[in-house]
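Predict fold of DUF3277 domain-containing protein; 143 aa.
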Amino acid sequence: MAIFDPKQVVVLLDGKEISDWSDGSDVINATNQVDAGQLIIGANGTGVFIANPDKSGKLTLKIKQHSADNAYLNKLFNQQKNSIKTFMPFTLAIRDLINDDVVTATKGYFTTPTPYTRGNGHNAQTWTIVFEQMTINLEQGVQ
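Predicted 3D structure, encoded as tokens:
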């Protein structure tokens, strides 16, 4: 039987730990932005695989509504929005301390602004950051 503990996953943006997750099974989502390539089949039925050199990735984080992590990310989002010239792009490091999965990324920028939503319940803030290069290394994990 494999084991996993979400409290043993560390997310660092520029070395600052982000950890005040909302509820759900997808509060941390790192993915490559494009397919690794495309298979093209010619009129004679033979094919050629065209590798895609794009190594970009996208990170989506879901944070509790009134979290200090939200305030931190909002401050950085506003800095990027108001002065892109002085904004320092993000570096990312995610590590599953039990299973040794690792995600690293460089040159990250916010894309989709998180909305201001309030009502009769909790509203997670969803942050989206894209990276010029992202590497995802998955391990077998502890058995």
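The chain has one domain: 6-34+54-137.
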